[in-house]
Amino acid sequence: MQSVRVLAMNTVCFALGCSAAAIAPQPAPGFPDRMLPAADAGAFAHVFAASLPLSVRVPEAAVGKAATYRVADRTGQIVTAGPLPRDAAELALASLPIGWYRTTFHGEAGEELAWTPIAVLAPRRVPARPDSPVCTDSATAWFARGNPEKQNRFAVLAALAGVNWIRDRLTWNDLQPARERIAEATDYDTSAEAHARHGLAGLQVMHSTAHWALDRPLDGEEAWKRFPRDLRDIHRFCQAMAARFRGRVQAWEPWNEANIDGFGGHTADEMCALQKAAYLGLKAGNPEIVAGWNVYAGSPNALHAELILGNVTWPYYDTFNIHSYSPPEAYPHEFRHSREVACGRPIWISECGIRLRFVTPRPWGDLTPEDDWRQACFLPKSYATSLFAGVDRHFFFILGNYCEGDIQFGLLRHDQTPRPAYCALAAVGRFLDGARCLGRLPVSANDPF
Fold this sequence. Notes:
The protein is α/β, with parallel strands linked by helices and 449 residues long. The protein contains eleven helices and 22 strands.
C-alpha cells in the first residue's frame, strides 16, 4: 500500500506521521468529565493492564474436564502452560507482556476442549483527550437491551481502549410511542448514563419513523424506513431529545444512511429537507449540541454534492458525516466530494469497518485466526489514512460482537472478550490520541515496516 507507513509490534499497531499538540484543549461545554479507568476494570472480559496478574475464566465446556492449559501469543508461540485442577473455574496467571493471547484448555489425551482470549494493554497515564479522533460505534442500547450491567461493560471496554466518542442507536417509537407522550425510563437513558459515567462523549443516531408519524400504516412495504411526511414531527422530537439527553449525548445524526434502500432510499433533496428540520429542532432543545449531517452510506457522489450545495444545506450541520467499508487506500479519492460539501466543517466517519466472513455458528460467529489478524491490521491503517483524507473523528464499526448476514464486524466476541483488533484499537487510542496528520509517507512492498 503506497500510503501511511504502519508499524506492527505483536498485536499493538500504530501509524507514523501523526503528532499531538503539547497542550490538551479544554472540553467543549457539556462534555463528560474524563477519568482514568481502574487498571483491573476490564478483568471481566479478560482485558488487563500490563504488569497485573491475570485471572482467566475457564470456559464452561472445559470445567471439570480440562487437565492442562496453554497460553499462546498471536503467532502461536506458547508463552506459558501447565496442569489445571479438574474443578477449577478460574486460571491464575502471572503478568504477560502487552499483546493478545489465546488460552486453550485440553483434556487428558491432549485434545482441545475450549479456548478464550486475553488482551494485555499498556496502562493509560492520562485520560483520552477531547480532540482525539479515536472513536467507536457500539449500539450499546440495542446490544445490551434491558441489561444496564452489560451496557456499563461496553462503556468500560471503550474507555480502556482510549476511545473519545461512542456512537449509540435509538428507535424513535420507543421514546415517543404517541404524539403527545414521551417515554420515561428507557434503555437509551441507562446506556447514555453508562457512557457519561466513563467519560465518553455520545453520538446518537436513528433510522426509523415513529408509527404514529408514518405517512401510511406499517405493512409489507416497511413504511418505517421513510421520513415522516410532516417534518414538524421530527423537529419536535429532535428538540425534545436534545433537551432530555443534555449532558449525556453531545451529538446527533438525525437519520442513518437515508440514501440507500435499506433505510428509505431517499433523494438528496429529501435528505436536505429533513436535515434542516432536525437541525433547528436539535438547536432549540440544546444550543450546544453538535448537529451532524444525516449520515451517508458511503460518501456523496458528484450529483449529491451539487444538490446539497444547491439546497444551501451547509448552515444546517455542524459536522458532515459519512460511512465507508472500502480499503483504506481508497479513502482520499472516495472522500473528495465530502471535503467539498463539508464547507470547512469537520468530517466525521461514523461507521468504518472491514467485511470478514465468520466460520463458527451464531451467536459466536468467530473469524479464522488469519481474518482476526486481517481485522487487527486493517484498523490502524484505516484510522491513519482517514486522517490523511480529511476526517476529524473516526468511529470503528463495531465494538460488540455483530454478525450481519455472513459477516462478522465486531471487535469483541459474544462474551465480550477481545478479538486481536480490540488490542489494535487500544494501541490507536494511545498513539493517535489528539493526533493530527502531517502527510503521507510512501513505502515500498519490501519495506521492513
